[in-house]
UniProtKB/TrEMBL annotation:
The keyword Iron applies. One of its GO terms (cellular component) is endoplasmic reticulum membrane. It is a peripheral membrane protein. GO terms for molecular function: metal ion binding; monooxygenase activity. The keyword Oxidoreductase applies. Signal peptide: none annotated. InterPro entries: Cyt_P450, Cyt_P450_E_grp-I, Cyt_P450_sf, Cytochrome_P450_fam2. This is Cytochrome P450. Its main location: endoplasmic reticulum. It is found in: Endoplasmic reticulum membrane; Microsome membrane. Its cofactor is heme.
Amino acid sequence: MTVFDSTALLLTGMLVLLSLLLWLYPRRSSHLPPAPGFALPLLGHVHLLRKDSHATFRKWRRQYGDIFSLYMGRQLTVVLNSHKVIKEALVKRADVFFRQTCFFPLNDLVSDEKGIVLASGAEWKPVRKACLEILRDLGMGKNLLAQKIQEEVTEYIRTIASKDGQPFDMTRLTLISVSNNICSMLYGKRFDYDDQAFEDCMKAMDASIAGQASLVAGLFPAVRHIPGDPFKTHDIIRGLRRLLNTFIQPIVARHIQLLDVGPNPPDDFITAYLRRVRQDEADQKVSYITEKGLPMVIFHLFAAGSETTAITLRWAVAYFLHHPDVQEKCHQEIRKVVGVDRRPTMQDRPEMMYLEATTTEVLRIASVAPLSVLHTTSCDVSFAGYTIPKGTTVIPNLDSVLHDSEHFRFLPPEDGQLPSLEGILGLAFTPMPFTFRAVPRL
């Protein structure tokens, strides 16, 4: 081969490579929302994201405003910030920002069964409605559920007292205790704190949910092929499969085998759900309430009710430790309203406004679920002065709402009775009445 031939071959290879890179490079329209930095071929803006993506989004919001866009790989993604923008999209334009994105780690598991979170269109409404009706019948928001919670809290406190004042990590204990409340409603039973199989399932769920918080793993499926699996996507999938196959599905199978369709009220969610399935079958009714879809429904309810509640409780303990004055005021209010000779009930809640405000403030500051469930545009849409193409992934950034001074006015502590866990400034909450399509929280 001559020097000329080698040069021609090299130039041809470089030309092919350049053409490939140009083809892979994300093409931006001038009508899209602003984007941060430089998008790489194949990767998009992934290289600019850190593990705590919501912190990165805070920075970008300050730079680019309430709407900005980025590419996760080759997938165009638009992030919505502020109460006004999110409400406009998810409530007033719900017909466009409606179909929810199926999150990547679950794709290998859900098949045609979407549960609650991943359902869309005509499917999600009857499933969500049925779940809410069953949960209310079982006592959600009533004293019946409060009684079960009190029984579990008694065991929780007894376990803490057994430590004799010695320091210990309350993460595992809190997650298992909260999960037991969910189990008693969903399955009709609780598990011992030293049940190893139950603890293993809780660890699998914890790891899976923590992994799903990674936008890189969720929106960029190709990361599963990176040597060494740096984003732990395979661990996420294995954990979810273990949770479904070794914990949830066997419990559902036992309920199916022992199902009682008699007149007695159901003792748990699974029994009530299966009765609805049997009734729809007897009525020859076309229904999205199916036996096959029950395990994924259970998983979504379980994940939404246990992990987030446990994290919130740990944040509450941390804030109380750093703000003993707030802790003391809550304590005094409880003693005044409830006393020491009985347990609290739901009827006591309206009388403990300081405790209510403290709980609300913990939920706000902790921002346990900073990003809402992902959505996808169903068609090209003109929104807030931009053009967003069909198939764009949309991320509602709830963290931007919870820390938005436009909807939270700040007062010196001496000017108001509401607690402040942020130190010098007090806080008064301005209600924000809009609804996300969310899993019902237990």
